[in-house]
Amino acid sequence: MENKSQPALEQEPVRAQRVAPAGEGSQAGDSNALTRLLRKRLERYVSIMPVVLVGDDPDAVHDVRVWSRRLQQSLVALFPKPRSGKVRKLRRTLRRVRRALGQWRNCDVVLKLASKQQRRTRSREKKQAWGLVRDYLLQKRGDQVARARKKLRRQNLADLVGRIEKLMVQSGGQQETEALMARLCAGIEGAWTKWQSSLVQAVEARQRSDIHALRIASKTLRYRIELLHDLGDANTQPLLEWLKELQEALGIWHDRQVLYQAMAEAMARPEFLLRRPDVARKLLIEMEKDYLRQETAINEIFRLAAEHGGRKQMETWIAKTPHETAPPDRT
């Protein structure tokens, strides 16, 4: 996954660390530190992109998407609303990159799942069925890779770097520490409020779209807290560990949904149904059995969201954190 776990550290209360005046030993919230973090994330993002353009490493595709989110989160923090057209354009560019790679990434994930299913079964018929799904996915992946690279080649990496560097010079790191920290914490509180609403809706409806919305809300909350952590607030480590565990459970659920979609697409082809109705029946049985098991996975997601100790730590952190009111921000 994109974030390596670290042991939680015992430190002073979050409030005391977060509002410490500049020059008294607190690194969290220093706008110069935020500029340095933005540059570090930019370097990481730019270093991975060429691998995606010319290579065939699924991890590189995943990493570009992760670091584009981290880079975007840093831009949002350093340049608050009202943002210039230049900053908004950079955000759109990063979102386009993620969208371009989305289907490629889905194909990589589902191919891995289909290959695992094929290896695990001893039935010759089932092996053949999963093999046909893999063949379909390999063809689809090739199309998605070509489409994604065509879009990505329109992105000028040197130009992206130049535009961000210019903005960093213009910012000059002149933002006051306390104001910056209050704004970052307000962003986290806004994401937390959205997350709570998404959880209530998902629990009540138990619909795929609502659970997906909870997944996105969890991801947003995690990336905002991660930014604060990377700026020196180690008190957020337990929160990140909880969100990482929750996001992994949501990610596994999401991957199974993408697998079902791929199986349906593979079977929906006329040549498949007409020539191999026996294989289609096998796949439908497999899908039904696995789909029933997803109820257990959903219950585990809701348990992690509501009963995990990290949830209580998150509530305590929010209660202790000074903040300013901030408008909602799409990141």
How is this structure best described in words?
79% of the residues lie in helices and 0% in strands. With 331 residues, it is mainly α. The chain has 2 domains: 27-175; 176-323. The longest helix is centred in the N-terminal third of the chain and has 36 residues, at 85-120. It is globular. The model is unreliable at 1-29 (pLDDT under 50).
Low-confidence stretches: 1-29
How many domains? The number is 2
Q: Topology as H/E string?
A: HHHHHHHHHHHH
The radius of gyration over CA amounts to 22 Å
Helix content: over 70%
Distance between the termini: 19 Å
Question: Notable features of this structure?
Answer:
331 residues; 2 domains; disordered N terminus
Write the layout of secondary structure elements.
Layout: H1 14-18, H2 31-54, H3 58-78, H4 85-120, H5 124-152, H6 157-171, H7 177-205, H8 208-230, H9 237-268, H10 270-275, H11 277-307, H12 309-320
